[in-house]
Design brief:
single chain, 156 residues, alpha+beta, Alpha-Beta Plaits, five-stranded antiparallel β-sheet, three-stranded antiparallel β-sheet, 4 helices, 26% helix
Length: 156
């Protein structure tokens, strides 16, 4: 069942007025694959580019984007998040693993904010490193976990 379609098949915002306020969290992950010519600039846990520290900038961009989700995604409720954090780590497969976790006490979930935050952080890594290589791949973005609302979710 599509929640953003009314009985006549028209787009609609989900009515959350009858829902209970609960504590809700969501974590999303984006993975960026970097070639060796980019990874060689990894210094003290961050990539250094002509535009500045890549990971630190991506963290700020992810948080800023999560805060603007209601303006970016049609029919998404505008939410005043209680918290949002973005982490950036390099794993052993030449991948940058970005996780965005958002939380709120509200009547609706916060998955979209976490997904947008992780996505924009990944796009920021790409933007800041594209001068070094165009072989950068944003491999995936997915929801990792959510709590609150009708059902909790966690990937194994």
């Amino acid at each position: 069942m599509l929640t953003h379609i009314d009985k006549q098949g028209n787009p609609t915002m989900v009515d959350v007025s009858a829902k209970q306020v609960t504590h809700r969290t969501a974590t999303a992950r984006s993975i960026v694959v970097l070639p060796d010519e980019v990874l060689q600039y990894l210094v003290d846990g961050d990539l250094v580019s002509k535009k500045g520290p890549v990971f630190q900038t991506a963290i700020i961009a992810g948080i800023m984007a999560a805060k603007k989700t209601g303006e970016l995604i049609p029919l998404c409720h505008p939410l005043g998040m209680d918290n949002c954090s973005v982490t950036v780590q390099v794993n052993g497969q030449h991948e940058i693993v970005i996780e965005c976790t958002a939380s709120i006490n509200a009547k609706t979930g916060i998955e979209m904010e976490a997904l947008v935050g992780a996505s924009v952080a990944a796009l920021t890594v790409y933007d800041m490193c594209k001068a070094m290589s165009h072989d950068i791949v944003i491999k995936e973005t997915k929801l990792i976990a959510k709590t609150g609302g009708k059902r909790d979710f966690k990937r194994a």
